[in-house]
Amino acid sequence: MSATTLAPGATSPTASRTSPYRLSFAHVLRSEWIKFRSLRSTWWTLGITVVVMVGFSLMFAAVVTSVSGQGGSPEDMGMGSTDGIGVMVITVGYSFAQLAVAVLGALTVTGEYSTGMIRSTLSAVPRRLPALAAKMIVVGAVTAVTTAVAVGLSYLVTYPILSGDGLTADFSSAEDQRALVGAVLYLTAVALFSVAVGVLLRSSAGAIFTLVAVFFVLSMVLGIVQGVTGADWVQTLMNSLPASAGEQVVLGGGMSSPDAIGPWQGFAVLVGWTAALTAAAAVVLKRRDA
Amino acid sequence: MIEARGLTKRYGPKTAVDGVSFTVRPGTVTGFLGPNGAGKSTTMRMIMGLDRPTAGTVTVNGRPYAEHRSPLTEVGALLDAKAVHTGRSAYNHLLAMAATHGIPTKRVDEVIEMTGLQSVAKKRVGGFSLGMGQRLGIASALLGDPKTLILDEPVNGLDPEGVLWVRNLARYLASEGRTVFLSSHLMSEVALTADHIVVIGKGRIIADAPVGDIVDGAQQRTVRVRTPHATQLAELLTSDGATVTSDEPSLLVVTGRDAAGIGELAAAQGFVLHELTPVTSTLEDAYMALTADSVEYQTESAQQHVGHGAAGATAAPAPTDSLEGAQR
Prior knowledge:
The complex is a heterodimer. Chain A is an all-alpha fold. Helix content of chain A is 72%, strand content 0%. Chain B: Pfam families: ABC_tran. Chain B: Residues 2-227 form the ABC transporter domain.
């Protein structure tokens, strides 16, 4: 490595001039996009999201047609009717894809804390909150696009399997439309929730552990407890937690217990949690030493 | 221009920086010298708005850092060579940093060339050596062509060529009228690079003066005398106003008399001298003496060394011009 280059460039003006460079939100947004796209972990988690969503759709489609082909009824699959099976097939992967999306959201922040990058970020954007806002916009937008693409791919790859039994999604029903949009909205909210958790906890391991507990273990355990005991308080609890309330926007009617919170009310609960954690993250980020 | 007034940082019961006030002027290289744990990095982080002061204020070019409209063009900082995501390439790191201020890609290429990182720019930072990490940090600091540069331990991990490069770069940037504030725990390094030195120990400013004053003021000249008549000669010298210490029988370390004076005195009494060596303490010794009471993590041997003051240097006579020795 040569140490002979000394001058900071021929174009370097003297120290007394005013610089043409300006810090602006649009610039910070661009910076966060560059940071986001220049990490391998981003492409890994996005790839896994798509693979998981499409893969589970294919698996579920195969199961559905197999049951249907053996003369089974919707009841055999624990469902009231064949309405909505098509959409369920397309969106079924969400509960696994949410883990990939959660890791993506958390790593966007915790990756900076674990490597020390956060000090570079906050030196460049000393007011700090624009950096957080830009991160959330980038993570939210990319998650929304990626999950929408995954849902579209799921529809395309399962169409030939389901069309023989007339089980393909029927986008004319309001329920189907809601579930479809809901899957994208739910996963986007999970990603933003995870960014906020990342800011609050700063550690990758801590954040991912927490997110897996909140979005996977907790709702699964409560679902089982509720199924076994049927206790009202368990349902009340589930109706107020981010995962089990939020996922109603995907599940809605068919798979849900009759006492479950409504789809949009449930999504509002998740949005409420996300907003509250984001506010807490903003306060903490602004106050804490980097 | 950096102005700190009563800057204080406490972490729980521990005070890392204790009411520090100093001014760093443009057009000069100001060295920030202190042992590990003295509060250098904490002070620099407070200047950059990364740590919130418990009390006091610090401004850069007239304003708190965070209030500048384009902070990277005001201040470029190397606070920590590891303040980079290890999974990203050096080029993409600089590109992202530049993007926050709308700094063009051309400038990114410029700083890469300036710091000699061309061959590794597209490689991921995780595989960088400490020296390459330092160069990337310096590249990052130069991105905005800033009026003020803050460099925390910039020569850490650099090879001799790199050390020389940083030294010349700092001097060049100051000659352009920029403010350069550079920390080190090596007195010799700072003495070679800086025009002005601020010495910090245990969170307090110990000295704040031009480099020449600090070096002269802190340096002690002693004479090593070996003689079979040690006891008598010591008494004679002491009664004459000199200070005498002794590490072993027949060896005296004399302060306050030059070699000629001691030789004449001994000759007048008929004392045999086996050795008469003038010793100038090294800069490191001067610095040790300066910060003796404010070293955070003191070892047993360091305490003994400090206890004997400059006499510790007598093991090997070390003239002042052997500064390079400290870059080992």
